[in-house]
Design a protein that fits this description.
This protein is α/β, with parallel strands linked by helices. The protein contains twelve helices and twelve strands. The chain has a domain at 6-191 and 226-251: Rossmann fold, CATH 3.40.50.720. The strands form three sheets. Strands 3-2-1-4-5-6-10 form a seven-stranded parallel sheet, with helices on both faces. It binds nicotinamide-adenine-dinucleotide and thymidine-5'-diphosphate. Thymidine-5'-diphosphate binds next to α6 and β8.
């Protein structure tokens, strides 16, 4: 039997960000046992982890964080030393069409994990850690000026961000009330490989490749702050190991883009990669009805994690975008696999009637 110094539960490890975190931990910490718990919803895909699935320190468990007794027995079985909680329903548009699922997974699921950790660690919280991964969307929508800092009051406006805000509050309540050793981070929009093509960049890469319309919500004036997913995973590693108990850290790319400017940049890059005449992809831009309650601007001030933990983004955006586009073009099978089946139904509901 292999001896591990720590057994860590990563939830949602078969999703976009989770798969990058699992990969990083498996490779960087061979003496940690990593248990990846994932329900494998439409967004979870074990193909995201093909390269590490046979590693000795990795184990996958299929299960639902909403299932309280299952979560209790999982904690009893593995005696986790730490939890990195990423499992969530994560897409704003889906939260508009079906908010209830977000309440179950993002709120009830988080509470089940907190209760199980509390039950297990009650006698001995030393060297234990419950790390809750959250989003900048909990802070609401910015105007032209300002940035989100860790003390910005919460003002969520979509069912997704409201469910994440709720879970953040509960995690903090467990710190104050039960002394559970928690840490939280709130990150801006991630981009990179293995992102499900319902989110802006992989969706538009997929559509450009297939000469399909690019559905730009409203006037395309909304602004997002983009961070390369591997930089987020590095920040998560740092916070998990060095972040201060009870604290919150904002993570962002200091990289704001108005949607339409980003889309035009992507179109240029895609024309170049696909050997198309300049301007070909941009012709696919189609303005469609705006998202309900569409937050105008997100921007993260990440000076706390930079100053206190020495984190900084490793890539310039141009380089990250180029790598990302190259990855989706080289991994056609991955994209074709996730866009078959259920995806078609979602796409029709979301876009064809718009
Ligand atoms: P994702 O949708 O790609 O992955 C979510 C994963 O959770 C999937 O593998 C899914 O199968 C799993 N899951 C869903 N419901 C579950 C349940 N009930 N039980 C167990 N597993 C379940 O999401 P993502 O983009 O990788 O986001 C991961 C986390 O990071 C989320 O908590 C999200 O709120 C947060 N976050 C995301 C971004 C972003 O830009 N994507 C930015 C900041 C924070
Ligand atoms: P998204 O990737 O869904 O992330 P979030 O809503 O969490 O920021 O969307 C990024 C931005 O792109 C957001 O302003 C909405 C916009 N958008 C479109 O214009 N069209 C689309 O088809 C999608 C999915 C997003």
């Amino acid at each position: 039997m292999e001896k591990f110094v720590n057994t860590i539960l990563i939830t949602g490890g078969a999703g976009f960000i989770g798969s990058h975190v699992v990969r990083l931990f498996i490779k960087k910490y061979p003496n940690y046992k990593i248990v990846n718990l994932d329900k494998l919803t439409y967004a979870g895909n074990l193909n995201n982890l093909k390269d590490i699935e046979n590693e000795k320190n990795y184990e996958f468990v299929k299960g639902d964080i909403v299932d309280e007794s299952f979560i209790q027995s999982l904690f009893k079985k593995y005696q986790f030393d730490g939890v990195i909680h990423l499992a969530a329903e994560s897409h704003v548009d889906r939260s508009i069409t079906n908010p209830t699922e977000f309440i179950y997974t993002n709120i009830v699921g988080t509470v089940n994990l907190l209760n199980a950790a509390r039950g297990l660690w009650n006698e001995d919280m030393i060297d234990k850690r419950f790390y809750h991964i959250s989003t900048d969307e909990v802070y609401g929508s910015l105007g032209d000026e300002g940035m989100f800092v860790e003390t910005t009051p919460y003002d969520p406006r979509s069912p997704y961000s409201a469910s994440k805000a709720s879970s953040d509050h509960i995690v903090r309540a467990y710190f104050h009330t039960f002394k559970l050793p928690v840490v939280i981070s709130n990150c801006s929009n991630n981009y990179g490989s293995y992102q499900f093509p319902e989110k802006l960049l992989p969706l538009f890469i997929h559509n450009i490749k297939n000469n399909k319309p690019l559905p730009v919500y409203g006037k395309g004036e909304n602004i997002r702050d983009w961070l390369y997913v591997e930089d987020h995973a590095n920040a998560i590693d740092l916070i998990f190991h060095k972040g201060k108990e009870g604290e919150t850290y904002n993570i962002g790319g200091n990289n704001e883009w108005q949607n339409i400017k980003l889309i035009k940049k992507l179109c240029e890059l895609m024309d170049d990669k696909l050997g198309r005449e300049p301007g070909t992809s941009e012709n696919l831009v189609t303005y469609v009805k705006d998202r309900a309650g569409h937050d105008m601007r997100y921007a993260i001030d990440s000076s706390k994690i930079q100053q206190e933990l020495g984190w900084e983004p490793s890539l310039e955006f141009e380089e990250g975008l180029e790598k990302t586009v190259a990855w989706y073009l080289e991994n056609e099978d991955w994209l074709n696999n996730v866009t078959s089946g259920e995806y078609q139904k979602y796409y029709e509901q979301q876009y064809v009637k718009r």
